[in-house]
Request: fold
Amino acid sequence: MTFSRVVALAGGVGGAKLATGLQAALPPGALTVVVNTGDDFEHWGLTICPDLDTVIYNLAGIHNPATGWGRAHETGHVLQAMSELGGEDWFRLGDRDLALHLRRTEWLRQGISLSEVTDRLRRGFGIPSTVLPMCDEPVRTLVHTDEGDLPFQHYFVRRRCEPLLIDLSYVGAEEARVPDVVHEAIRAAQVIVFCPSNPYLSLDPILSVPSMRRLLRDARAWKIAVTPIVGGEAIKGPAAKMMREMGQMISPLTVVDHFADLLDAFVLDNADGVLHDAVQLPTLITDTIMADLESKRRLAQEVLDFVAGLDGSGNLPATPPDARLPASS
Amino acid sequence: MTFSRVVALAGGVGGAKLATGLQAALPPGALTVVVNTGDDFEHWGLTICPDLDTVIYNLAGIHNPATGWGRAHETGHVLQAMSELGGEDWFRLGDRDLALHLRRTEWLRQGISLSEVTDRLRRGFGIPSTVLPMCDEPVRTLVHTDEGDLPFQHYFVRRRCEPLLIDLSYVGAEEARVPDVVHEAIRAAQVIVFCPSNPYLSLDPILSVPSMRRLLRDARAWKIAVTPIVGGEAIKGPAAKMMREMGQMISPLTVVDHFADLLDAFVLDNADGVLHDAVQLPTLITDTIMADLESKRRLAQEVLDFVAGLDGSGNLPATPPDARLPASS
Reply:
């Protein structure tokens, strides 16, 4: 079957890759990506939303394939001049990238919501999918470390995740609310994909928005997570290091446990096939490494096909997605 | 004699050239440039101060010698990306130039005055002279034309000065005040140079700040203007066109008349030597075209030497500059 309403929950590079695959596998307009904004910060007087930008650049096909974030064919002339002027130069903003931050910041200052700003930007880049921030209010991930509390980008970029992680908090989350457009997308979704993003840094901030967790749990969609841990390591980023420092097993099972009440199904990498029984959810075992557009599309298609083949057995929702849509939608 | 306290009143390119010459001719720190901010505007959510920037880039020696404004070795990658995003692209901001606008805007938003921001910037560029805006409050030149009222940059850049000029006003001037640092520099000045800038677009906005005209008239300095009109044409920009449209003679004499009560002396170009008697002020006749650093320095030195050679005759102040300083300074 072909799904027409799929929601992906995503952080940065890993989430953007699978979202790109889903966009390629689905009919135009079928995908809505709900994106972490806990990484957002103010820099050079501009509001920077790294995960939203990574998702947008990937969906537009103009991302830097070497890094996964930022734009292809990028230059750093503003950064160089800023550095010479004594400005902050530890966060490497590219010239072409900067246009997006300028445009977003100007709109936000005019009182336009981040949801609307993001929609204008994705349309500006000709992206057929809907891209939405997890909320319009600022939520900022704060990293509690052995060196004290660090704002996310200071931990992640400036200190390269070197301090020992103790805990995380999502400052401002209690004041945030799920935007109506996100609410509607999740309520109407046939499938909700938890992308292979960092559970603590990318997906937990999304879940920290009040009522988001219940909204997801109550959604009549098939909910499936793709493991960000393969063969005892994170595919990218500090997820494994963070699990170790928090006393967790570096394993896909830690991810399954983490989102336990929210998931109907799981995707393991071939490298971890032996964990199949331990997952205790319907599990797809496949190659989860996404190296190019074809492998992104292939993984997305496999995930969608796997969900389409699920029936009402086990702990899955009792009825297939289409029958489970609210009558009003 | 060597002057140690010289003030230059400047707009953009022409003023920046003579200011650069004065900086080269004077001891380090002797020059204060008071700059027009009537051209300032908001663009891409940033506060752009074109004349301040032109003066800063010229004094720092990093200006684009081909245009006189902007930076040398400049690129336009942000502009290109902004254009592709549907943003405004008629004002051609360069990448390196943008760092300055970002830095300034961030500081202004923090509540730091434009005077202080400008001082930080000129120090950041290693400029030995003081550079000051005419005021800290926003004053915006509005151009009344046969096509209606146009904000300055829309008239100047977007419409290339094509509409017929009727009149000018300096919106916000009545709310502005002369910054203390400008007040002190003018009070202490031995020489005040009216640079060869557009009288209507560059120098009149400075004079529109309440009490500025009286402050200049009462200053115990030698006040000398360098003609922006040579051989019946403006050296650069629309001054001649504007004179014609306002029914004025395209002549250095129009400039002399315009600033009559403020000037002690005048500088004519060799091309207009025949006007010497008509000026009715002590007049230096020389080559006023500034093509390179040496010609800027040479003209500045000639202006300073001419002033140094003036005595108390005619309509000049009765005593030489040093004797005329207030006892308190």
